[in-house]
Structure formats: structure tokens, C-alpha cells
């Protein structure tokens, strides 16, 4: 008998370490499929892993991988086979040292800005979309969709264009032009809804149940458990970029709260499987919202698990989820690690965008302004320890929300093109 496969030349594709979907509420387990809620308790489902498979992953294996999120494929539910990926190859974004910002805020320990605006569509959403759509294509879906506050629509439309798959993305009708144009340009269907993100999300939850949308993967609805896992790569990257250390404090923006819970999960996994070391007192997770949409932070401040939905307002539109799906789990992570949450109003957000830009050279969208403003408040209130290493996450690009600071900055001089005019304007001192 002859074998069709020449074992000396084919390299085997590693298997997924994912084992099942497990309910975050009651622990019920389901197969790895397009399902996001538990049939028993309606709780959200999350990917569970074969711990033994994770424990076999080595630093060397990761370091030898590609210069993007797929270096962490051994720790992700999908994408082990490069040919299976639906992706713009996001990730390995800069971890920027921020001594001038630290000095201005009175932080004595190292301060870092993880700048995820450097991703292909300029927000951290490329990470979650690459993982969700790779899962979606593997599960046989032939159209890609999402309910978005802006950046997600941008990323899904771009991924679909790259993969040559039709897309239909849903957004609230009042989004910034910088989010609408950067999505529409990719040529998929873009549906603006007269309503809030929470209205958009509700509609998408209904559409996904219809026969007409049977072949459509909504990245944050029916394949949400996979989408959520993509956020872990932000945590992995920070640890790797710090030399396989977990920082003592992290400050993370919250919309649904998912990103925050997954960075915490990534740190736990790395420590559990021995790939990274935890700081001596453990790490503390801090969450940031805007004053116009602060249901999770308010629940923490009121010392309750009751998250009261709000009707979002304010300029931090990418974070405007009034009924946050992972809010409870974000509260849990912040309480368990001894962190805190706070929120910033529009003026504080604008000032913080400028502060971050002026001290680090990073131009953040409004979400990054929220996070920087909250970092400032956490130092002022004593909740954040200025003597411990801290990483603050900038998740999006300032050019997409340019109106936030458009009225505040501009030329510092206006001068005729002559030496005399330059001298008269005071440019020569
Ligand atoms: C979506 C988004 C977030 C938060 O995401 P969640 O996981 O829903 O909390 C943060 N920043 C930006 C720029 C986003 O677009
Ligand atoms: Zn359940």
C-alpha cells in the first residue's frame, strides 16, 4: 500500500485548542458552533479550552510565528491553518513608552500606551473581526455582518472586501463621518438605522433569526463567542512586549465591557500556562466609560450588580452601548483584581485627547480620550497606584473623530510668506 501523503514534506496543521462553548452563567457546555446564548439560562457563551493543549504552547512557538495576531493562534479557537484565515493580519501594534505623560500625571513608575490605532482599519476591532470571521467562514457562513458603534462596521466591511465575501453592516444613523465614509468605501451594504446602538443591536438579534439571514454571520451576535476571544490578543501582546510580564495596572475603555474581561482572561491564561509572570501583588484592571454612557461604572460606584441601561449621549460614540452585554463580567474582573472604574465628560475627553497627543505623539479617537481622562482621574483619586507599572489602551484613531478637537486646535501662527512677516509675527523670537 502506498500513502498519498508524503509525511516528510507536509507539515501538519496544528489543531485548535478550543474544546467547547461554555455558559458564563451556569456552566452548561455546547459544541463549537454559531450559538451565543445558553438554552438553560440565556447567559452568554464563551470559548473553553483544553488546558493541556494550552499548556503545551511555548514562547518559542509564538515568537517564531507571524508579526500579527496569528502568532497567538495556538491560544485562539480558530486560525491555526493560515489558509483558513479571513483577516487583514492585524496586531503587533506599538507599545509606546509615555514618560512625559507619566510626569504630567504624577506617575513615577513606567507608563505605556498600547496604541491599537495602528491596526489596518485603525481600531482594535480588527482583532475581534479576524477571529470571528475566520470562525464564520469555517462554519459555512457566506455573508458577513455586524451591529456596530462605528469601528466594528469599518473592520467587517474591510475584512469582507479582502476576502471577497458580501457584507451588510448596521450602524446608528448619527455616527461621525469618519466612521461612515471609512466603512462605505469598501463597497458592502451599510445600513444606517434611525436609533441608538442598542436599537441596532436589537434589530440584528431579530434579523439573525430570519430565514433570509440564515447564511449571515453577525460577528457580535451569532458568532460572538469567537469574536470575544480576539480581544485576548491585546493582552497577550502587551505581556510579550513587556518581556513576558503582566503589568501591575491596566486602564481599558468599555463599551460592552468585553474587551476588559478578555484582557484579564489573557493575562490569567498566560500566567496559568507559565508563559508570563504576574506582578508580585497581582494585576489590577481599571475600566473607563464616558459620562454620557456610564452604566457599568455607575453600578460599581453604587456597589451593585444591577446594571441599569442608559440612553447614551456624548462624543465617545464608539463606546456608546447603553445596555452592555459583558457589563457584569467587567464588574467581576475589576472587583476581583482590586481595580476601579470611572468616567469622563466630553470636555475632559477633548482635553485628554490633546494631552495624550502632546505628551506621546499618539492621536486617539474619543475612546482613547475617555481612557486617558479616566487614567488622570484614577491617579487624582488615589485609586490607581502611581508607583506601579501601568498600561493604558488606546483603541482607536483620532482621524476618525476629528470633530472632537477640530474647534480647539489649528495653526498657532498665520504669516505671509516673507522673512519680514515671519519676524513681525515673532517666529524669530
Ligand atoms: C468597540 C470599542 C471598544 C470597546 O469594546 P467592548 O469590547 O465592547 O467593551 C473600545 N474602543 C473602541 C475604539 C471601540 O471601537
Ligand atoms: Zn447557562
Automatic annotation (TrEMBL):
<keyword id="KW-0663">Pyridoxal phosphate</keyword>
<protein>
    <recommendedName>
        <fullName>Threonine synthase</fullName>
        <ecNumber>4.2.3.1</ecNumber>
    </recommendedName>
</protein>
<dbReference type="InterPro" id="IPR004450">
    <property type="entry name" value="Thr_synthase-like"/>
</dbReference>
<keyword id="KW-0456">Lyase</keyword>
<dbReference type="InterPro" id="IPR036052">
    <property type="entry name" value="TrpB-like_PALP_sf"/>
</dbReference>
<feature type="domain" description="Tryptophan synthase beta chain-like PALP">
    <location>
        <begin position="87"/>
        <end position="395"/>
    </location>
</feature>
<comment type="similarity">
    <text>Belongs to the threonine synthase family.</text>
</comment>
<dbReference type="InterPro" id="IPR001926">
    <property type="entry name" value="TrpB-like_PALP"/>
</dbReference>
<dbReference type="Pfam" id="PF00291">
    <property type="entry name" value="PALP"/>
</dbReference>
<dbReference type="InterPro" id="IPR050147">
    <property type="entry name" value="Ser/Thr_Dehydratase"/>
</dbReference>
Amino acid at each position: 500500500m502506498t500513502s498519498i501523503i508524503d509525511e516528510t514534506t507536509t507539515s501538519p496543521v496544528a489543531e485548535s485548542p478550543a474544546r467547547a462553548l461554555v455558559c458564563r452563567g451556569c456552566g452548561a457546555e455546547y459544541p463549537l458552533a454559531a450559538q451565543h446564548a445558553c438554552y438553560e439560562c440565556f447567559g452568554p457563551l464563551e470559548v473553553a479550552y483544553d488546558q493541556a493543549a494550552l499548556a503545551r504552547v511555548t514562547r518559542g512557538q509564538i515568537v517564531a510565528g507571524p508579526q500579527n495576531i496569528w502568532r497567538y493562534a495556538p491560544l485562539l479557537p480558530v486560525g491555526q491553518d493560515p489558509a483558513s484565515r479571513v483577516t487583514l493580519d492585524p496586531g503587533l501594534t506599538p507599545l509606546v513608552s509615555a514618560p512625559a505623560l507619566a510626569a504630567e500625571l504624577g506617575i513615577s513608575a513606567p507608563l505605556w500606551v498600547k496604541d491599537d490605532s495602528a491596526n489596518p482599519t485603525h481600531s482594535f476591532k480588527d482583532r475581534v473581526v479576524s477571529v470571528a470571521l475566520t470562525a464564520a467562514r469555517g462554519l459555512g457562513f457566506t455573508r458577513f455582518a455586524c451591529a456596530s458603534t462605528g469601528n466594528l462596521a469599518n473592520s467587517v466591511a474591510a475584512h469582507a472586501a479582502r476576502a471577497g465575501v458580501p457584507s451588510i453592516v448596521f450602524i446608528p444613523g448619527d455616527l461621525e463621518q469618519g466612521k461612515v465614509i471609512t466603512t462605505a468605501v469598501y463597497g458592502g451594504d451599510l445600513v444606517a438605522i434611525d436609533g441608538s446602538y442598542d436599537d441596532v443591536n436589537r434589530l440584528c438579534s431579530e434579523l439573525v433569526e430570519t430565514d433570509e439571514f440564515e447564511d449571515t454571520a453577525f460577528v457580535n451576535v451569532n458568532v460572538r463567542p469567537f469574536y470575544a476571544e480576539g480581544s485576548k490578543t491585546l493582552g497577550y501582546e502587551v505581556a510579550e512586549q513587556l518581556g513576558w510580564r503582566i503589568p501591575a495596572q491596566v486602564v481599558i475603555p468599555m463599551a460592552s465591557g468585553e474587551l476588559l474581561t478578555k484582557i484579564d482572561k489573557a493575562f490569567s491564561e498566560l500566567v496559568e500556562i507559565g508563559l508570563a509572570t504576574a506582578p508580585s501583588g497581582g494585576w489590577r484592571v481599571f475600566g473607563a466609560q464616558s459620562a454620557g454612557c456610564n452604566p457599568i461604572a455607575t453600578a460599581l460606584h453604587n456597589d451593585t450588580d444591577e446594571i441599569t441601561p442608559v440612553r447614551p449621549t456624548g462624543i465617545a460614540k464608539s463606546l456608546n452601548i447603553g445596555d452592555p452585554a459583558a457589563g457584569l463580567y467587567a464588574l467581576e474582573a475589576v472587583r476581583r483584581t482590586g481595580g476601579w472604574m470611572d468616567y469622563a465628560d466630553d470636555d475632559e475627553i477633548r482635553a485628554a485627547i490633546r494631552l495624550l497627543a502632546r505628551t506621546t505623539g499618539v492621536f486617539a479617537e474619543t475612546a482613547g480620550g475617555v481612557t486617558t481622562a479616566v487614567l488622570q482621574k484614577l491617579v487624582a483619586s488615589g485609586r490607581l497606584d502611581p508607583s506601579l507599572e501601568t498600561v493604558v489602551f488606546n483603541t482607536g484613531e483620532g482621524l476618525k473623530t476629528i470633530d472632537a478637537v477640530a474647534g480647539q486646535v489649528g495653526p498657532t501662527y498665520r504669516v505671509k510668506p516673507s522673512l519680514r512677516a515671519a519676524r513681525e509675527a515673532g517666529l524669530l523670537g
